[in-house]
Specification:
Blueprint: H1 8-19, E1 42-49, H2 63-77, E2 79-80, H3 96-104, H4 108-115, H5 123-134, H6 137-143, H7 149-161, H8 165-173, H9 177-203, E3 212-214, E4 229-231, H10 234-238, E5 247-251, H11 262-273, E6 282-283, E7 288-289, E8 293-296, E9 298-299, E10 302-310, H12 311-317, E11 337-346, H13 351-359
Amino acid sequence: MVVKKVSPERLKEVAPAFRKKAMNLYNMRPADQPIRLGQLRGNHFDIRVRNVKKHSADSSADLKDLVHEALENVKTKGFVNYYGPQRFGVGQKVQADQIGLALLKEEMVTAVKLFFTPEVDDPLDRAKRHFLQTEDAKETLAMMPEYKVRERMVLRALNRFGMGQEGCTRGWLSIPHSMRVFYIHAYCSRKWNEAASYRLQTYGQRVVKGDLVFSKDANEKNSTLSSQVHMVTANEEEESIYTLNQVVLPMPGNSITYPDNKVGYWYKETLAKDGLQACKFRVHPLKLNIPGCYRLMLAYPKNLTYKLQHDSEVVMSEETPEKITNEQSENPTASASCLSLSFNLNSSCYATVCLREIMKCDP
C-alpha cells in the first residue's frame, strides 16, 4: 500500500505499535505515485490453520493423506471464484448488498435506515438505534463515536437537509464516491455468486452454447466490455473447444453481455424479482454509473506450499519463522495439528473462499 505524506522513517518509528496489534510493516520505501484502482496484480497469503481435525465422515482416513488430497485438488482443479463474505459484511443483520439494492432502486430513505440498523449493544449501535427511533440526526451525531467517519458524514447532512428523499440523497452524496459505489458493487457481487451456483447446478462442468469466454481482444487497451467476450457456439460446444476454467460470468451493469442460455434468463428473472427489470445501472442522483465487468468462474492458487505439523512445533518456531515447504513433520496428530499455507491469488480473489474449498467448511 501507499501512505500519503508519511515518510519511511516515520513508519519505522510507529512499526512497534502496529506489531502490538498483530500487524507487521516491512519493505518501506519512498514512492512517486499512489496505487490506483486496477493496478493490483494479486496478493500473497501466509496462513496458519490451528487444531486441524478430520471431518467425521473421514474418521478412518489418515490426516496427512486428507490434507495432501485437498491441496492437490485445489491446485489442479481450482475453486469457484466466489466473492468472499467480507464483501457483504460478516454476521451482520443488514449486509452491504441490501443497501446496494435500495440505492439502485433510488430508495434513499430505505438505504439510510438500513445503513443505521443496529447490530449489537455497543456505543455505535446505541447511536444507530436512537436514530431509527427518533430520526434526530443532531442527537445521534453527539452519540456517534468519533471514529465512525462515514456515519458522522451522513448524519451531518441529514441534520442539515432532513430525512426526506432529498435529505437522504444529500446524506449519501456526503460520503466519497468509492464508498457509495461499494454498496452497489456488493449487490452485483451477490448476484454473481448466485449466478455461479446456478450455472454449476444447471450445466456442471460442461461448456455449452451461449456461455461466455474471454475473447482474444480482451486485453487490448481500447477494447469495450462487449468486445472482451466471445459467446460459445453450438459447434464449439460439440467439439469441446473450451473448458470451464475459461468461462466467465458477468457482474450486472449497463455495458456487459449476458450469456445466451439458461444462465442469461436466470439473470433477467433474478433482477426482475429484485425490482430491477428496468434498471439502467445508473443512479443519477448519486452520480453513479455501473458498467459491469466479467469474472472467471474458477480461480487457482499459485505457488501453493504447505506444512502440517504439531501445534507445539509451531509455537516454538514462531519467534524465528521459517520458509514454508511441502515437507511435513513426523507423525502429526489430528488432535493438535497446525496447517501452514502459503500461496498467491490474483486480484479480487478471496483467500477465505480458497480455504473453504480446502477445508470443506467455513474457515
